């Protein structure tokens, strides 16, 4: 029935009832898009709060797909729901970085509260593996709004506020006060907003307006010192002066003390660039992050933006590929594959439809650099993709951005529109005659879509299932065409390489690991955030020098490098150089650069179990070693933890790890044994502890 509407008495009244007519109107403009199914499903869920069962045949008809194809996509991705929400949806981070600071206890509290009924029955609980706020955990989102440092009391208060109908804070436009005597920077980064940056900016605007002094409040990206957020900076004649962490309640005292002139105050940290955290860094990829309004085209160009693209457009494509190859740039998404080789493979394919895809499905525990880059310097990603397009002969680009990052989605979407309007994208990029445009696509909560072929399947509007290789995506990728798939940080580094030359980048790093890596410190860490250093910095320098040890103050016991599939390293193994080869020799991996700390209260047998449970839940299911092996792995570890025939089960666990490593189709199953084996190697006593109750 074309005009049928339906309402659920228990549904969230903030959304309209399902209507087929309204649904058709919502998706009408999306039908011409390549791989339109995923954008349509997101649009329907934003409109109605869920994807009604009637949407399946409706979309199948519009897109000329089978009902089974559409239903398979809806049920594959965890973000799509088939029932209306009762009220606010609470998503709690359950990744290792949040586990290290108490997320399990918070989840238990939330489950008890929800089970108790009453007002709690008007909200819903969901668990996710990564919210991109790993240095300020435990983290949670309530209706998509990120909150950091959560505990039971704060969660209850925020839920009461949400259920009371509080509206989200309006985001102030940067630079809205015109010409000013002083410029004050308050970050708009999701991590800063999660601890109150919006309230600080609003309170500052109100206070300074009342004073009559002209003040320009710029919502910049974060500098990466996340334990100091909200970090307020004031532009002075001697440079920018930092204060933090600042709350709205601090502002009267700060203003009285001369905040606008860089005056003394207990929260004054000093000149931003002279802070120990900033002084020792070698920022290339993150050179502009935190300096200005990330959406300002004028600011981007003033800080060297577009110089790399302009130089590239004046070069032959083959020379651009050579420049990237000579720089030694390797993929920053985890595999570390040389970017130049991948680009060259695509460039050598016959002319025709080719694609550039940015993999922004950042889901590893302890990682948040992609999010920070897209929120703090989005044009660098756009510029890098345009350079790549010129080098390989591509005419379309896609950014696959994980749905858990609403702030990044908003910033990237606006940046694409502004770049297109200014001529940096479109029919003639920068007047060069090269046609290239970029389109943003949202993921839907599937970890496996961080694997490049699963991501391509998702972009095509399918279930995110891993493809067998060969053929390589560089030869048969998106929609069967030659495709460059690079991580966000890889592509965002390219503009600096083209602007400064390959030799400048090659001069940084060690061995075959050239340039810099953006390390992310999270978990039980005193000073969490972003550190960009040349390859070769030791793990000890990162953990003790920058991180300052554990947040709890207890002794450090373990560090996991490389996300949920990375190895656990002991506290006495911190002198390890952070480069691809040194980590491989230590039976570890760099991954996306996440570094997660655990104190001496961690149970490493349970962490090993978590690795298997994570794989069992997130496997795409295509290959048996991953799909079944992870389930068996949980069962074997449960028996070990319970003290059942430990020696035999430990042998069985070793055999199972070998099968998963050698037989899995992709790194999901192939690397899951790495954290398990490392826990066994370095923390064997935890597997011999007195029998414990199972999780």
Name some characteristics of this structure.
single chain; 695 residues; alpha/beta; Glutaredoxin; 6 domains; five-stranded mixed sheet; 28 helices; 40% helix; globular
Description of the structure:
There is one protein chain. With 695 residues, this protein is of the alpha/beta class. The chain has six domains: 5-76; 89-163, 3-Layer(aba) Sandwich (Glutaredoxin); 182-278, Glutaredoxin; 301-504, NADH-ubiquinone oxidoreductase 51kDa subunit (Rossmann fold, 3-Layer(aba) Sandwich), CATH 3.40.50.11540; 510-599, Ubiquitin-like (UB roll), CATH 3.10.20; 604-688, NADH-ubiquinone oxidoreductase 51kDa subunit, iron-sulphur binding domain (de novo design (two linked rop proteins)), CATH 1.20.1440.230. 40% of the residues lie in helices and 14% in strands. The chain has 28 helices and 22 strands. A five-stranded mixed sheet has the order 8-7-9-10-11, covered by helices on one side. A five-stranded mixed sheet has the order 19-18-22-20-21. Helix 17 crosses helix 20 and helix 26 (646-663) packs antiparallel against helix 28. The longest helix has 18 residues, at 624-641. It is globular. The two termini are 48 Å apart.
């Amino acid at each position: 029935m074309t005009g049928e509407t339906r309402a659920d008495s228990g549904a969230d009244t903030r959304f309209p009832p399902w209507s087929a007519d309204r649904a058709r109107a919502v998706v009408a403009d999306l039908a011409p898009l390549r791989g339109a199914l995923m954008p349509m499903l997101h649009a329907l869920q934003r409109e109605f709060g869920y994807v009604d069962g009637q949407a399946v045949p409706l979309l199948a008809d519009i897109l000329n797909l089978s009902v089974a194809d559409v239903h398979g996509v809806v049920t594959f991705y965890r973000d799509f729901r088939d029932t209306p929400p009762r009220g606010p949806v609470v998503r709690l981070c359950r990744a290792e970085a949040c586990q290290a600071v108490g997320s399990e206890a918070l989840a238990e509290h939330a489950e008890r509260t929800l089970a108790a009924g009453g007002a709690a029955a008007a909200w819903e609980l969901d668990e996710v593996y990564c919210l991109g706020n790993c240095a300020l955990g435990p983290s949670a989102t309530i209706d998509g709004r990120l909150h950091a440092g959560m505990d039971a009391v704060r969660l209850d208060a925020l839920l009461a506020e949400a259920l009371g109908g509080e509206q989200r804070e309006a985001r102030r436009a940067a630079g809205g006060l015109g010409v000013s005597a002083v410029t004050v920077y308050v970050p708009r980064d999701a991590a800063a907003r999660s601890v109150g940056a919006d309230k600080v900016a609003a309170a500052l605007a109100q206070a300074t307006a009342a004073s009559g002094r002209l003040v320009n409040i710029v919502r910049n990206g974060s500098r990466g010192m996340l334990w100091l957020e909200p970090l307020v900076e004031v532009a002075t004649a001697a440079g920018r002066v930092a204060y933090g962490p600042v709350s709205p309640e601090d502002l009267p005292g700060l203003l009285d003390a001369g905040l606008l002139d860089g005056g003394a105050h207990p929260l004054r940290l000093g000149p931003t660039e002279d802070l120990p955290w900033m002084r020792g860094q070698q920022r290339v990829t993150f050179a502009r992050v935190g300096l200005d309004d990330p959406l300002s085209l004028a600011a981007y160009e003033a800080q060297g933006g577009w110089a790399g693209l302009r130089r590239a457009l004046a070069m032959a494509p083959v020379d651009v590929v050579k420049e990237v190859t000579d720089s030694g740039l390797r993929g920053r998404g985890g595999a570390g594959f040389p970017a130049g080789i991948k680009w060259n493979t695509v460039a050598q394919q016959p002319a025709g439809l080719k694609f550039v895809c940015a993999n922004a499905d950042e889901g590893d525990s302890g990682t948040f650099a992609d999010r920070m880059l897209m929120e703090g310097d989005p044009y660098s990603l756009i510029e890098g993709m345009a350079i790549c397009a010129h080098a390989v002969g591509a005419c379309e680009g896609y950014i696959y951005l994980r749905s858990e990052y609403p702030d990044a989605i908003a910033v990237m979407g606006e940046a694409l529109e502004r770049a297109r309007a200014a001529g940096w994208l479109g029919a003639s990029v920068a007047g060069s005659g090269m046609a290239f445009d970029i389109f943003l696509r949202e993921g839907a909560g599937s970890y496996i879509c961080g694997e490049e072929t699963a991501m391509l399947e998702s972009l095509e509007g399918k279930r995110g299932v891993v493809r067998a290789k060969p053929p390589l995506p560089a030869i048969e990728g998106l929609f069967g065409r030659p495709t460059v798939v690079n991580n966000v940080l890889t592509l965002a580094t390219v503009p600096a390489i083209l602007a400064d030359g390959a030799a400048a980048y090659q001069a940084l790093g060690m061995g075959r690991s050239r340039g810099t890596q953006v390390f992310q410190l999270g978990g039980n860490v005193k000073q969490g955030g972003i550190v960009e250093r040349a390859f070769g910095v030791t793990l000890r320098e990162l953990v003790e020098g920058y991180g300052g040890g554990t947040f709890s103050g207890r002794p450090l016991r373990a560090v996991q490098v490389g996300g949920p599939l990375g190895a656990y390293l002991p506290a006495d193994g911190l002198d390890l150089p952070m480069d691809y080869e040194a980590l491989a020799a230590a039976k570890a991996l760099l991954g996306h650069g996440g570094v997660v700390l655990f104190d001496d209260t961690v149970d490493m047998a349970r962490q090993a179990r978590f690795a298997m449970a994570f794989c069992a839940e997130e496997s795409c299911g295509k290959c048996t070693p991953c799909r079944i092996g992870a389930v068996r792995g949980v069962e074997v570890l449960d028996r070990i933890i319970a003290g059942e025939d430990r020696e035999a089960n430990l042998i069985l666990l070793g055999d199972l790890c070998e099968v998963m490593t050698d037989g899995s189709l992709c790194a999901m199953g192939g690397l899951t044994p790495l954290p398990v084996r490392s826990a066994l190697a370095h923390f064997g006593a935890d597997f011999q502890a007195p029998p414990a109750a199972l999780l």
